[in-house]
Each structure stands twice: as C-alpha cells, then as structure tokens.
Design goal:
Layout: E1 5-14, H1 24-32, E2 48-53, E3 58-63, E4 77-80, E5 83-86, H2 122-126, E6 132-141, H3 149-161, H4 163-176
Antiparallel strand pairs: 1-6, 2-3, 4-5
Helix pairs in contact: 3-4
The structure holds iron/sulfur cluster (2 copies).
Length: 177
C-alpha cells in the first residue's frame, strides 16, 4: 500500500443566485496578478472571467482551470431557463479556439492560483453581493504526487508556444523570487 499524505484543498463556492455580473472579481484578480502587484487593471489578465447574458439575467463567474492542448472533440449544450448555451461559454480551459485565460503579453495560459499567500482570495474579498465563498480543508490522499508531471506540463507549453517563449517567461518569473 502506498503512503498517505495530507493536502490543503481550497474551494470557491459560487452562488449564481447572488451574482450580479459587476465584474469586481475580474478587476481585483487582474490587479493582484499585475507586475508589480496592483500596478494595472486588465481583465484579460484575470483568472476569473464573467460569462454575462444580460437579457436572460444569467451571470456566471468562470475560474481558469487547465491548459487544453487542442480543442476538445465533444461539445455539450447547457439549457438554463429554457435557453441553450454552448458548453464552451462556461469552460475553464485555455485552448486554441478562444482568447480566454491567456496572459495577454506572452500568450501563456493562466490558471487560478487561489491568490497564493493571501488569507482569502481577492475575488472573494471584493464580491459585495456575497456570490463567492471561500473554504479550505485538509484532505487525506493516498497517492504521492506523480513523477513527470512538471515535465509533461512543460512539454505541452513548449509544443504550443515554442521553447524560447517558455524560457523567457520562466526567466522573468525567476527574477521575482
Ligand atoms: S464580484 Fe461577485 S457579484 Fe460581481 S461579478 Fe464577480 S462573482 Fe459576480
Ligand atoms: S482566487 Fe485569486 S487567482 Fe483565483 S480567480 Fe480569484 S482572485 Fe483570481
């Protein structure tokens, strides 16, 4: 049997009934992730993007997840209050078919990091209607981190953006630490 380990798992629970589409979460996230921190506001840099359909009163905050290496081959259609929406509207991935969740300067994929280092994520702090709730709990997991995860991620980035762009980005990050 493999050894167990404990992980702090963080959640943001979204209550769509309370979201009013104000986009304060986008503003706060993009400021937090600007370089230097809070030096600029650019929602394109935000790890949470609002899907807004004002006519149907549908507002959905979508949090950046993982890079998808290519467009997925299947599509689902979601029906909300009798209206059909493409699953792509609410997808968390950065992929080749749209501009969402890509760093505007480098084109590299963005992922929500739960505002690492902050007691409570910025988007949750600024959400005045209370649509976002933060939770964290320790969870036991029976698997050690899989070897090769970093290598696989880098291979994907290099194949999509080229070695030089990835090297430049990592070098820029390294200067901050
Ligand atoms: S700050 Fe809250 S209410 Fe405003 S768009 Fe974001 S999730 Fe919705
Ligand atoms: S938790 Fe932090 S990084 Fe994630 S979307 Fe909210 S503000 Fe952005």
């Amino acid at each position: 049997m493999g050894s167990t380990t404990s992980n702090l798992v963080k959640y943001i629970i979204v209550n769509l009934d309370k979201c009013i589409g104000c986009r304060a979460c986008e503003v706060a996230c993009s400021g937090f992730h600007a370089t230097p921190k809070y030096s600029s506001i650019n929602p394109a840099r935000s790890r949470v993007r609002m899907f807004v359909d004002e006519l149907s009163d549908v507002y959905v905050p979508v949090f950046a997840g993982y890079l998808t290496a290519s467009e997925c081959s299947g599509r689902h259609v979601l029906t909300i209050n009798g209206k059909n929406y493409s699953e792509c509207s609410f997808c968390r991935s950065a992929c080749s078919s749209r501009d969402l969740f890509k760093e505007p300067d480098s084109g590299l994929p963005l992922k929500c990091d739960m505002c690492d280092g902050e007691e409570e994520p910025l988007c949750v702090q600024v959400c005045r209607p209370g649509a976002l709730t933060y939770m964290a709990e320790e969870k036991e997991c029976d698997k050690e981190p899989q070897p090769g995860e970093v290598e696989a991620g880098l291979e994907t980035l290099i194949s999509r953006h080229g070695l030089q762009q990835v090297v430049d980005y990592v070098a820029g990050k390294a200067k901050k630490y």
